[in-house]
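# step 3/5: fold
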Amino acid sequence: MLTADVVIVGGGPAGASIALALARRGISPVVLEAHSAPQMKVGECLPPTINPLLDHFGLTERLRRRGNLPSYGNRFVWGSHSIEERDFIFAPTDSGWRLDRATFEDELMQAAKEAGARWHYGCRVVACSRENDSRFILKVRAPDRMETYRSGFVVDASGRSARIAGSFGARRVFYDRLIGVAGFFDSDAAIPEEEDSFTLVEAVSSGWWYSSRLPGGKLIAVYMTDGDLLDPSALRQTDRWLALLNKTNYTAQRVRKYGAGSPTPPRILPAHTVRLTTITGNGWLAAGDSAVAYDPLASHGISMAMGSGFHAASAIIDHFSGRSDALRVYERLIDRSFAHYLLMHHETYLREQRWSHQRFWRRRHAPD
């Protein structure tokens, strides 16, 4: 029987941020990450608003040393056929970031461990239950054996599945059926990675495309649509995915200019907006995508994961200090943020009216 004051299930940006913040405040959490190492993930761009949090966690210089690149703004083809630009030159926190996700998450993990967190890769929670009113028992499949943990507090940072919160009775509420179909190209080695540092979003009749040049000589392109509008098996075929890409204007031009060779086989990834009916309970809370997962159009994914992790850690410390409303305060904070997101999300999609008769856009102009 292994013991911990706090067990964090999931080692992505939310779980790592909680672990780092708790460890700096004198609590040594255990992080149980199901994968054996940081994974290649889609979601590589950070807005400038995250910079104060990166500075607070001491991550800014670490990101620069690992070759992550600045992002100086966004370009978008949305609501008209012309391309518009919104740069970060007047942002109070300077430029954003283009990340290598695996190295970014590795730096988060290293920072948390250096602060005192205990990190265990390849450990999948198979059951979580209450021993009594104050302790949890977690059954964990480790790489070479089964383990049992006893903990006074549990954090669900397992992602959109929210498996731990689900075992405590929380339900997921889905707001759409959005998926992303992502492919990576090698970039032309003769063109510096610093050239064209902008992200690009381009609306099309059945959804929209996102693209960005990334560290390590990569270019990513992602097609966003509803999972029921196209045959998923067809989207996994490189030639079918490329045919859709080549129907775009600016995204196809970018790929032709900076991409080299064939893309990786397309990967289908969940991108729907979803939240839990409740994100806290007696001795537990959910953070990051487990609590609320956003449409990638909002560019909130990593920022909100780390931000919710920071506030979750504060709520846990206040809870341990005897503040009876600490978890409710955290939940109200997430509720307010999500309500603001829903309004901005609806207004953004309303600005694209060129294909208002198409099912993808009808759903967002008049959501259920």
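# step 4/5: annotate
The chain is about 30% helix and 30% strand.
# step 5/5: archive (pending)
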